[in-house]
Specification:
210 residues, Nucleoside Triphosphate Pyrophosphohydrolase, eight-stranded mixed sheet, three-stranded antiparallel sheet, 11 strands, 22% helix, 35% strand, globular
């Protein structure tokens, strides 16, 4: 797997132990590979951003660790039909971004916050829709029941973490954004195309676990 130990919860906890939430949830780090993006496009991603949080839900199965992902509803205004982590924008009642990620996960796929042990955090990343998204990495109880809210999510599925950590599976691709070709990274797993911010977050997680 290109310099990776076998992924375990112990390894994730060890590699993420020193991470912490940023005091400012809109303090973003540009995605990996973004150095080649047009400078004005890069600048546009760092304008006024709204804080959001997603959970990177890691589940310990008999076959190894998996990551839970969702196929978003086609009816949504933003990122319709895309693969994403459960999550959403921060609300005034949320104490911090971790609470945002856990609340949204409960709303979207039914996983209770009590079934999640937070392992650590990745840097907030900007999206083209104007959000600063902080990934919260958490270990989900394997007995947790998945109940999808179909207003936001079509279905949820799991991908082996070892597949996502193998750099041979991180493929160079591109996206047409308002007539401009932007290079991106993506993963292809079974019939799923995992791209954009979600793919870049997974690559950042892989960098943490090296």
């Amino acid at each position: 797997m290109d310099s990776f130990e076998t992924p375990t919860i112990v390894l994730l906890r060890e590699r993420l132990r020193s991470t912490a939430l940023a005091p400012d949830p809109t303090d973003v780090v540009m995605p990996p590979g973004s150095d080649g993006w047009p400078s004005d496009f890069r600048s546009s991603l760092q304008q006024t951003l709204k804080p959001a949080g997603v959970l990177v839900p890691v589940i310990e199965r008999d076959s190894g660790l998996t990551v839970l992902l969702t196929q978003r509803s086609a009816a949504l205004k933003h990122h319709a039909s895309q693969i994403s982590f459960p999550g959403g924008r921060m609300e005034p009642e949320d104490d911090d971004i971790a609470q945002t990620a856990l609340r949204e996960t409960h709303e979207e796929v039914g996983i209770s916050p009590s079934d999640v042990a937070v392992l650590g955090y990745l840097d907030a990343m900007p999206t083209v829709t104007g959000y600063a998204v902080t990934p919260v990495v958490g270990c989900v109880n394997s007995s947790a029941r998945i109940v999808v809210d179909h207003a936001e999510v079509e279905y949820a599925f799991e991908v082996p973490l070892s597949f996502l950590l193998d750099r041979r599976n991180a493929l160079a691709s591109e996206r047409d954004f308002n007539g401009r070709i932007i290079p991106i990274m993506e993963f292809r797993y079974e019939q799923h195309r995992i791209w954009g911010a979600t793919a870049h977050m997974l690559i950042k997680l892989a960098e943490k676990l090296k």
